[in-house]
Amino acid sequence: NISRLKKKRTLRVIGLMSGTSADGVDAAAVDVPARGCDVRLLAFHTYPYPRSVRKMVLDLCDPRASSVDGLCHANVVLGERFAEAAVRLAEEHSVPLRSVDLVGSHGQTIRHLPRGRRFRGRRVRSTLQIGEACVIAERTGVTTVADFRPRDMAAGGEGAPLVPYADFLLFGHRRLSRVVCNLGGIANITYLPAGGTLDDVLAFDTGPGNMVMDGL
Question: How far apart are CA 58 and CA 216, in angstroms?
Answer without folding.
Answer: 16
